[in-house]
Structure formats: structure tokens, C-alpha cells
Design goal:
The protein folds into two domains: 6-48 and 190-222; 55-182, no CATH class. Helix content is 67%, strand content 8%. The chain is built from nine helices and three strands. It has a three-stranded antiparallel beta sheet. Strand 2 and strand 3 (102-108) form a beta hairpin. The radius of gyration is 27 Å and the shape is elongated.
Length: 230
């Protein structure tokens, strides 16, 4: 290690101090959503929501699959989960019965999936009042019941070797119920309407990373650390 270089060390300290000062500002509650990270997280979630609307595509898959009457024995996680899921199938016109944590269902897959998509559509557009009117449940509890029931359906359909129906069940669960649940409460935005903020955040992220890197580099250079050539 050679002698300390005051100029380089001062530049490094300045860069690190300003870096930390900006970081403090980032974590301060300057926005309605909280700090800047929360603001950007909500922004990117709202932008990504618009590209996660798979319900029309899944609806086409259901229509292509067509009507298929099935008898299902759904092994739920516990009796309360079976009781919560039962109204979902009843509304879809299925015949149901509960025995402990088993939910027995006789019904048409196309009708069941259509009812599920209707609930997912309401939740995706933040219309929880629709699900309250249908089941007396808020959006997320209703979607959670659908998610558990569809998972049990997929297992039972595979057991019955109804593999196409099982794959469609998985698609409905992942592409509609999960998306509606994860994005519930978020208002969708198009990136073209917020491109300035998005561009600024991406450029700032790159520059902020470089900022930190140069600060560390100048501090070590100022302290006399050098890479030895061999």
C-alpha cells in the first residue's frame, strides 16, 4: 500500500456521502404510497397487471375443451376449506356433498370453469362486491378457495386419467385465479402513459449503481490500494 492520495480519497468520500444521502431520501415517506421504493413497486405492478390479463385466452381454451361431466372427490386441506369451496361449485350448478375434508362434486367442467372465470374477472377488476353478493366472501378469500379447490381438482382428474381436463384445470388456476389474486386492489396502467417515470427510474438505477462503484473505487485508490500486476 502506497501513500494516501488526498484528492482521490476526498472524491470517494463525497460520492459515498451523497450516495447515502440519496438512499436516505429514497426510504423517506415522500409519496402517498410511502417511500420511493413502494411507489416504484406499485407503478411496475400496475403496468405489469395489464399484460397479465389472460382470462379471454383461457376462456377460449375452455370453450375448445367443451362440456365434460365429471364426478370429483376433492381432498381439501381441512373441513373449513371444503365448506368454503362448496358454494363455488353449487353456484356453477354442480351437485355437492361434504364429508369431513372431502368435497364431492358432480358437474360439468365447462360450467364450473366459466363460474371460476367470472369470479376471477370480477376480482381482477377490483369488484369485490360481486363476490360478496355471490358468496358472502370478499375477493381474496373467494379466490383462495377457488385456488385450493382447483388444485384438488387437478389431482383428482389426474388420478382418473383425465389428463387434458387436469391440464386445463391447472391453466385456469395459474392464469386466472392466481393472477386475479395477486393483482387484486391494483389499478392497471399502460406503460405508454408512464414511460417518462419508467425511463427515469431505469436510468437512475444504472447511474446510482455506478455512483456507488466509483465511490468505493476512489476511496480505495485514495487509501493507496492498487492492483498489483504479475
Amino acid at each position: 500500500m502506497s501513500r494516501i492520495k488526498k484528492k482521490e480519497f476526498a472524491i470517494g468520500v463525497f460520492l459515498m456521502v451523497t450516495f447515502i444521502a440519496v438512499m436516505v431520501g429514497i426510504f423517506m415517506p415522500l409519496f402517498d404510497e410511502g417511500n420511493a421504493l413502494n411507489y416504484l413497486d406499485n407503478l411496475y405492478n400496475s403496468i405489469s397487471k395489464g399484460s397479465a390479463y389472460y382470462i379471454p385466452k383461457v376462456e377460449h381454451l375452455i370453450n375448445d375443451h367443451g362440456s365434460e361431466v365429471v364426478t370429483l372427490n376433492l381432498k381439501m386441506t381441512d373441513p373449513s376449506a371444503a365448506e368454503s369451496a362448496e358454494p363455488l361449485f353449487s353456484r356453477a350448478g354442480a351437485t355437492t356433498a361434504i364429508e369431513d375434508d372431502n368435497l364431492m362434486v358432480d358437474g360439468d367442467l365447462e360450467t364450473i370453469f366459466s363460474a371460476c372465470l367470472e369470479d376471477a374477472e370480477s376480482a381482477y377488476h377490483n369488484r369485490s362486491e360481486d363476490l360478496v353478493a355471490r358468496y358472502g366472501m370478499e375477493a381474496r378469500p373467494a379466490l383462495h378457495s377457488w385456488w385450493l379447490a382447483l388444485g384438488a381438482m387437478e389431482k383428482d382428474l389426474n388420478r382418473q386419467k383425465l389428463f387434458d381436463a387436469a391440464q386445463l384445470t391447472h391453466t385456469v388456476q395459474a392464469k386466472t385465479v392466481e393472477c386475479a389474486y395477486n393483482y387484486y386492489g391494483i389499478e392497471a396502467q399502460e406503460i405508454r402513459n408512464r414511460w417518462g417515470t419508467v425511463l427515469f427510474s431505469l436510468v437512475f438505477y444504472v447511474l446510482y449503481t455506478i455512483w456507488y462503484g466509483f465511490g468505493i473505487m476512489y476511496i480505495f485508490e485514495g487509501l493507496g490500494f492498487e492492483l498489483a500486476a504479475h
